[in-house]
Protein: Geranyl transferase
Amino acid sequence: MANETFIGWMTAIQQYMESALEKLLPSADCAPQKLHEAMRYATLEGGKRVRPLLVFAAGELVDAEQDNLARVGAALEMIHAYSLVHDDMPCMDDDVLRRGKPTCHVAYDEATALLVGDALQTRAFELIAQPLPGIAPASQLEMVRTLAHASGHAGMAGGQAIDLASVGQPLTLPELEFMHMLKTGALIRAAVMMGAMAGRELSAEEKDSLDVFAKRVGLAFQVVDDILDCEADTATLGKTAGKDAAHDKPTYVSLLGLSEAKRMAKDLHDQAFAALDGFGPRAQRLKQLADYIVARSF
Structure:
């Protein structure tokens, strides 16, 4: 029953976010139509919406308003979508399939894909820079700073730069963890912390505990991604399976082996759970999401 309740909550948030994104993205009927259509193509109707789900789960800890959480979640999802559009381009990972459909540069063209990423990134910051009712200006400013840090040279973009440079290069486990803490983990951490900024103020100790949870679950997400890249097929993943191995990229599976990578994911999951002990039942959704992230099949 508990699992059914969580699935119902997750489905409701995913549908709510799809509706919010529909409204917050520019209309394809307005000029420049091709750019707007491609922005919607890259963002809508696909993806697990893990980052918005984390925003809403963290928002439950602070009694945040749903409309504010939807705007924060949409900003994060647009940053995530922009990163996927750029990562898939021929100058980077050169992939043709994303979320079960042709990648943006394949469906449109490279120039449009580049502009889609640029436009999604700036739209994301526009969303959280606009007044959010009930959220103090200082908290909004901290949201902007958190998202900028997570998506820039010290976060997602920096991690992608390390990833591109790592092809064919042996990495140690700490080096691999550092890369993924930036490339994948930084935006997942931002989702948790920004959701918690949308309501009442947490204590310094609570913020520290939430930060530990966010970092552990962000790293676990990437470890599971590496496992699925070996175990799942392209149809299930909605993207090209086995691509990292084919391109000689270091992964947790190539470094540790499959069984040890699974053990690492479980250890990170357990550490994430332990970090939430002080929150009691209020952290139920975050714990359920940690379960989902580690047990997912795509």
The chain is about 70% helix and 0% strand. The first helix runs from residue 2 to 24.
